[in-house]
């Protein structure tokens, strides 16, 4: 393989129902950094139908080029049409690096692309850097999060990775940025389309996405029970926070998995993260240690959570949390 032929950093700009997903903006932010360090361009691949102003948003976020495949077949995500469209672009443009979000769509699409393109894919990366010989150093947790592995694709191009939402930082949008928008026509082989979307049903959920919350009140095993959990909900209500949790609370059936923070949950980066009755296992830290300000409440002064906390309170959460809630309530009156 002639690696010299492969140039540029490409991002699969995932959109759902006409809304570009945050992870796409975060990846463009990272792609910008990588591309600048090797003197290359950032290209966003945007697939869908009737995409309006979306290419402009991607340019404002840091893309130099947006390749648009606007086709009715791509209105809703289906594996085969999307895999054909993105494979076609990658084969034509030969990017050096391709980044996708580790969302349900990215996790479905990424492996199809890597197998069709006969290259590797490193999933769930937490760090991406350019190393020797322009190889991408793709770092991700291994062995249950007990060590970090850096993976390099020395012999194959493109170098592909998926990154979970919330891991990379998006840049502030700059609407004065200029870029190129190119329409791409894909020669679809519809004989390979074996799945048809019959109906889309939205699950009714009045839940906020914890990755979007500014303040998170997060509970762990120390919270203990439904009663302990309601103390957290009271506190969260006083400070307009959302409630999240460690895996222990999810396993105990006290909260849904969509609120789990950590390696097998979500990666969050709120302004304030309150870790209450959470020990700070490495798999939990992986999902929250980038938070701006961490407050930990734990009765064990040696709990590892205190090593990442900006403010630590040693004591019984069942006493501290109600006092804190009452003080906050009083201060608001
Ligand atoms: P514990 O570790 O049991 O800690 C409870 C804490 O509460 C203790 O520090 C204790 O001192 C404190 N406490 C108890 N009572 C009180 C009280 N009255 N007042 C104050 N403090 C009190 N975990 C995650 O969270 N997210 C993940 O995504 C995740 N993914 C995983 C993936 C793998 C492959 C594996 C192997 C594990 C994963 N885990 C994950 C589990 C993780 O290893 C820990 O078991 C889990 O985070 C522990 O949750 P915890 O801190 O709530 O409970």
From TrEMBL:
Instruction: Cite the PROSITE patterns for this sequence.
Output: ETF_ALPHA (PS00696)
Binding-site residues for FAD, renumbered to this chain: 221, 246-247, 260-264, 277-284, 298
Report the co-factor binding details: Binds 1 FAD per dimer.
Checking Pfam families in the record gives: ETF, ETF_alpha
Q: Which cofactor does it need?
A: FAD
Q: Which GO terms describe its biological process?
A: fatty acid beta-oxidation using acyl-CoA dehydrogenase
Tell me which PANTHER family the record gives: ELECTRON TRANSFER FLAVOPROTEIN ALPHA, ELECTRON TRANSFER FLAVOPROTEIN SUBUNIT ALPHA, MITOCHONDRIAL
User: What is the species listed in this Swiss-Prot or TrEMBL entry?
Assistant: Porphyromonas loveana
Can you name this protein?
Electron transfer flavoprotein subunit alpha
Summarize the protein's role. The electron transfer flavoprotein serves as a specific electron acceptor for other dehydrogenases. It transfers the electrons to the main respiratory chain via ETF-ubiquinone oxidoreductase (ETF dehydrogenase).
Which keywords does UniProt give here?
Answer: Electron transport, FAD, Flavoprotein, Transport
Report the sequence similarity comment from the record: Belongs to the ETF alpha-subunit/FixB family.
Q: Which Gene3D superfamilies match?
A: HUPs, TPP-binding domain
